[in-house]
Amino acid sequence: MSHHHEEDHLHRLRHSAAHVMAQAVLEKFPTGKVAIGPPIEYGFYYDFDLPRALTPEDLEEIEARMREIIAEGHDFVYQEIDEAAARQLFADQPFKLELIDGILSAGTDEYGEPLDEAPKLSIYKSGAFVDLCRGPHVENSKEIPPKAVKLLNVAGAYWRGDEKRPMLQRIYGTAWESPKELRQYLEWRAEVEKRDHRKLIKDLDLISFHPEAGPGLAYWHPKGGRMRIVIEDYWRKLHLQGGYDIVFTPHIGRAELWQTSGHLNFYKDSMYSPMDIEGQDYYIKPMNCPFHIMMYKSDIRSYRDLPLRWAELGTVYRYERSGTLHGLMRVRGFTQDDAHIFCTPEQIESEILRVLDFSINLLGGFGFKEFKVALSVRDPKKLDKYAGANEMWEQAEVSLLSALEARRLPYERMEGEAVFYGPKIDLHIKDVLGRTWQLTTIQFDFNLPERFDMTFVGEDGKEHRPYMVHRALLGSIERFFGVLVEHYAGAFPVWLSPVQAVLIPIADRHLDYARDLADRFRAAGLRVEVDASGDRMQAKIRKAQLEKVPYMLVVGDQEAEAGQVNLRRRDGGQGGAMAVDAFIAMAQEAVGEKRDL
RNA sequence: GCCCACGUAGCUCAGACGGAAGAGCACACCCUUGGUAAGGGUGUGGUCAUGGGUUCGAUUCCCAUCGUGGGCUCCA
Question: Among this protein's residues, is A133 annotated catalytic?
């Protein structure tokens, strides 16, 4: 993520706003120490070491002072200085001194990244604030629209992101070219908050968490369960059509297995303590791969058997630090839509293309059509830290690249981002609010086939090492579900809705008719409920509306007599009176076409 | 795990210099049987997260623990 060479005006404006904020903070806390303060995607932040914790009132005060500083109209003045002058200038700013050391000796910039050009120290002065900074900035503080700046929150952040170093206070702010853009951004944030899956899964009675029974563990209620079944059934259908076999493996395995796989060496921090079974240590699985490999090795494999594509909705448990848990997006137990592809070197290119197409098709079914792709490859400077032969890495990379190019998918090449055992591509889907979520990962593994001594017999009668590709497309069912909830704001397309239609009898005498209809609809494969409460019709409609049920079917005297239902859709649209069969056909069509309504 | 904030009924939230716990929604019952987003009444429901401490007295103050939230780090 190289965000700091941006030169456009908005970035300069935000960077300058960060300086103005630092000035305001230092005025309030003259003994405060400043760390770094860059522009970021929607604004800026600055990290401080202050004598006390900041309060929301402090933020208001600082923000008010920022507006005054902006109005004072300070020029941002750039100046290059030598080391001695810099050290003197920042004598009481230890973080800045450390940055100076970094720039001069290690040749790294203020973010700790390597510098291309010769080390050069520069400062920016604006008003009473001087910062070690290479800019760029706006010319004058008046370029920052005072009413388009807002401080958002305070959070802890480690100096240089290192948890062994001091915890600083980070103030996040946002800044825009105009108050209107600020308002739009704040509205966007409000929309994000409204769609928060943690709120919606509770309101819609889909999933709950029970911290007292263990944090980070999801409980799928009946309505969440219905949706999960729909998701999984669709997943299974596509996998079977797509040439996968579906397998099931245990949840625990002996220590020896995890020793062989290397997990006890490299992944132990994420694994739970072992349990003792008849004197043997067993671990609950954090991954499914070793089990699939056991199955692979249960027989002699011929090149004629390959490729093998084994998929499993495998539930794994991983230790995540308590502070990192976050609703469904980060949990301690989750089900991966995992699969492993074992194939020959000749097959690898077509297999990669196949899995890429498969993934795009699967995600498309859920309404995700836009992707960002990251191709993670080796760090060319550290080729020795990777497992697997050089030519395997090269072939793997070619196969990933050519698949992306065959489908004309723009991608970002991330050098050094590959895991030690193989290169990978990750798909980030874009949701309706423009946010991206990493779900899909398609990953080569040059390590496990080696460790488990996996082989297949080739045409030549000799043993060869198969290629192994690990892939998870939805990622985890839990996270994917959370993304779905936020993407649709809980108003799911008909095929996913836990309740597709609610029958709303106008008076109690219409209950029998409503129940008869419910049976007919269920027989036709629809998920329906009858609202048999004592509420009035209007209240029943309101309730169904809040539950975001796609179809509300009002039945009263007229409908019962004519064998009809009176349709109201979730979007407020009136379908009017229609024959029961006509409604069934319409609903089935909406399901079949995965329509919203 | 770390920094900061927070934890009151199933949900959303009031509350008190430390002196007998409140509302709305939900739920139950009764009345109302209604035509496209809330009809009315009555009632049930809380060890004020847990455990210590200070105090005549703690839901309120202090400490610890657990959990949640905003971030950092890490990641499906």
Answer: no
Distance of CA A503 to the CA centre of its chain: 37
From the CA of A211, how many Å to the C1' of B51? 18
Tell me, yes or no, whether A297 lies in a domain: yes
A166, exposed or middle or buried, with CB in 10 Å at 0-12, 13-18, 19+? middle
Domain membership of residue A3 (yes or no) is no
Are residue A481 and residue A522 in the same domain, yes or no?
Answer: no
Please state whether beta strands A252-254 and A39-40 pair in parallel, antiparallel, or not at all (unpaired). Answer: unpaired
Rounded to whole angstroms, the distance from the CA of residue A220 to the C1' of nucleotide B57 is 45
Tell me how far apart the alpha carbons of residues A528 and A500 are, in angstroms, rounded to a whole number: 6
Structural domain containing residue A524: 501-592
Number of domains composing chain A: 3
CA-to-C1' span, A163 to B73 (A):
6
Examine residue A429 and state whether it is found in any structural domain, yes or no: no
The reply to whether A182 and A311 lie within a common domain is no
ipTM associated with this complex: 0.92
A588 is catalytic: no
Q: What's the pLDDT score for residue A5? A: 44
Task: Check if A184 is active-site.
Answer: no
Query: For A146-202, how does the pLDDT look when each residue is reduced to its tens digit (9 = 90+)?
Result: 999 999 999 999 999 888 898 999 999 999 999 999 999 999 999 999 999 999 999
The mean of the pLDDT values for chain A is 93
Residue nearest to nucleotide B33 (CA to C1'): A507
